[in-house]
Structures are given as C-alpha cells and as structure tokens.
Design goal:
The protein is an alpha/beta fold. About 40% of the residues lie in helices and about 15% in strands. It has one domain: TPP-binding domain (Rossmann fold). It contains six helices and seven strands; from the N terminus they run βαβααββαβαββα. A seven-stranded parallel β-sheet has the order 1-7-6-5-2-3-4, sandwiched between helices. Helix 1 crosses helix 6, helix 3 runs parallel beside helix 6 and helix 4 runs parallel beside helix 5. The N and C termini lie far apart (about 30 Å).
Length: about 160
Amino acid sequence: MPLPKDPTLIYTSKAEVARAPVIRSLLSRADEPLFVVGPRAVEDDEWRDRVAQLIRRFRAGAVCTAPYGGDDLGRKMGMVELATLLQRDAPVLGSNPDVVVLTGSRTDVTDRVLQSLRHARPDLVKISLNPEYCPSADYSLPTMDMDDFLRELEELLKA
C-alpha cells in the first residue's frame, strides 16, 4: 500500500487493513462511537448520504469539520479543536468516545490527526473510513477507487 509522501512521518506500525465486516463489528461493539465528517464527504452526495445512514445505524455522535455545509452531519467543530479534546480525553459532545471514525478529510490531515492520537490515546480505537489507506489509524480501508469505496460503505450498512 502506498504511504503518504511526507518524509516527516515515521511509522512504527501500520494500520490493519480492514473491510466492512471488521469495521461493522468494531462499531457495533462500541459504547460511544464518534464520526468525524470532513469536507470531502460533505461535497459528495452519495458519500454524504451513506455517512448519515452510518451515524444513525450505529447511534454515533458526529462532528462536522467542513467549513461550509454539513450542518446535518453533526456539530460544527474545527479539526484542531477536536483533536485537542480527543488527545486530552475530554468530553466531545458530552461523551467520551471509545471509537473515532474519520471520514471525508484530506489524507494528510487524517494521517496527522490519527498519528497524534496514536501516541496520546492508545486506548482509543481509530478508524479511517476514506478511499485512501491511512497508516496512522488502527484500522483503515485499503486504497480503492470511489465506486469501490461507496460499495464498501454500503456493505457497512448491511445487518
């Protein structure tokens, strides 16, 4: 799997490549999952609809980091503010999430946030739900084209 081309990142371990059944199991067992929805998911109607369905299906909290739109996908919050709260194990939306799912943010942003959480919060399960592999997550989808990615999200919604 290709890693992000950033020479400042040092990976001591990589994310486990996981598909829909594994991610569905992780989300089903979570007490307080949190979805972090970025601008790429807000801009793509199919991605947006599937993420909204996932949030409802897993009764998850949701934060939208897009600077525009996405008000229906969760409370608006900046990525830095959110990452700081998660690093400090402070409540986000009134709860302490045990699983955090990042979807729709740029690959470099997702990787940096998850890299910081990997060191600060090893107890937090970190999932990257993007069409690009993210090595700093605990679990990540493999790199795939958009059609395959949308099918994978659809697979996550199955019972």
